[in-house]
Amino acid sequence: MRFLPEKQNFSVLSALTLVILVAGLALSVKQVQSPTSLSSKAASSTAVDFYGRSLKYLKLYGQETLTEASRNSVTGRRLYHSSGVIVDRSSTPNKIYTLDTGNNRVLGFNGLGACSNDASLSCNEASDCGLGNSCQVSGTKSADIVFGQADFEGAACNRDNNLGWTKNPDGQTLCLSLYPYATNIAESWLRLNIDVDNQGNLYLPDYGNNRVLKFNQPFSSDKTNGKGDTVADFVWGQ
User: Fold this and answer.
1) Do the beta carbons of residue 97 and residue 196 sit within 8 Å?
2) What 8-state DSSP symbol labels residue 2?
3) Which of 71, 70, 63, 44 is nearest to 55 (CA)?
4) Is the peptide bond before 180 cis (omega within 30 degrees of 0)?
């Protein structure tokens, strides 16, 4: 085997280093490109992610763009550590529940879009809107109901970060982020399973409170037997 002289070895190493730096610079430039707008997303199902890779998708929920990741803005459509989703197919339009672990809540959507003939009607597909009409789905639609918080701006464990871990839970609270017991919620996230049955009842694991909660048909217009609200009707584990 023939070895290169020391000076030539240095030249080869320098050349390799330069190539790596140029490649890294090109990737950095691609990462700071302007995020894909909603209008362009509607026309195309391809976008570039944080690492410069081309992604194909149908719809985007929780944020307006692929590169948006604002964790301190709590609204009816933003998620922080989204950790589970379930679709309730027992009624039309189908109901969608998403676990928002970082904000200690679950968001409920009575459809993810609005009908073209009547914006007040929720939908997931054209058949929800009647013959000849379309369903306009957008990731900016706010949830219709929220579990675990009093409104769409609350995010505290058991609704009180001052007491947090030691506050007694009730039928309207959730503790999923374990704050302040776990002080770094940016790195503290969970993947949880939620479920619905064929009657539209919702089952939630309340991890921080060591229990499982059942909610009787949260979207029902019938208010009997605990239906039609976000107050738990049955508890396991306590």
Assistant:
1) yes
2) P
3) 44
4) yes
Do 74 and 154 meet the contact criterion of CB atoms below 8 Å apart? yes
For position 61, what pLDDT does the model report?
63
When computed from its CA atoms, the radius of gyration of the chain, rounded to whole angstroms, is: 24
> What is the residue-wise DSSP string for the chain?
-PPPPHHHHHHHHHHHHHHHHHHHHHHHHHHTSPPPPHHHHHH-SEEE-TTS-EEE-S---SSSSTT----S---SS--SSEEEEEEE-SSSSPEEEEEEGGGTEEEEES-SEEESS-TTSEESSGGGS-TT--EEE-TTPPPSEEESSSSTT---GGG-TTTGGGSPP-TT----S-TTTSS-TTS-------EE-TT--EEEEEGGGTEEEEES-TT-S--GGG-SSSS-SEEE--
Q: What is the pLDDT of residues 149-174, one digit of tens each?
A: 988 888 888 887 665 556 788 999 99
Regions of the chain where pLDDT drops below 50:
1-44, 50, 67-70
pTM, two decimals, is: 0.68
Q: What is the separation, in whole angstroms, between the first and last Cα of the chain?
A: 73
